[in-house]
Amino acid sequence: MTTPESALHTATVARKCAFAQRMITAYRELYLEASFDLTMIRHSLMRNGYDFRARAPREGVTMTDDMQWEVDRIENLKWVIEECCLFMERAGDWRKDLLLLEMEDVERDEAEAKAEAEKIRMRELELEEEKGVDGSEEVAN
User: Does the residue 44 lie in any domain?
Assistant: First the structure.
């Protein structure tokens, strides 16, 4: 038996879950964009003679301001990627918790509805028994 309060609660949970999903989608898009940029910058640096293992230009290659800017940008993109992963995980956990709470609410509502239906059924049986007893007395008179 759905009450207006439980319907409102379900709608609220649905909105919050949709918001969490939009957050996950937005962070996923940012993650993909940052990953792509990171890959492009790494390729550019490698073509220009940067050695990532040594974290410095190869021998005979001078570190330019543009190369240094790209190295710094790589560090920033790594941070963005880590933050995106963290926020996607948090939003996913929040969404999962909301869904679990909603499932518990639905199960509780179903149990309450079954209990209420059982009460009604028992009351109807009692009324039928009373009518049966009353009806048999009338037939005898």
Answer: yes
In a domain, 28, yes or no: yes
> Is pTM, for the whole model, over 0.90?
no
Q: Does 68 map to a domain? A: yes
Which tokens in the block code for residue 34?
A: 């940052």
**Number of structural domains in the chain:** 1
Specify the amino acid at residue 36. F
Bridge-based pairing state of the strands 56-57 and 50-51: antiparallel
State the pLDDT at residue 135.
57
Element (DSSP H or E) covering residue 53: none
Element (H, E) at 119: helix 65-140
Structural domain range at position 43: 4-105
| Residue of 125, 71, 90, 109 lying closest to 20 (CA atoms) | 90
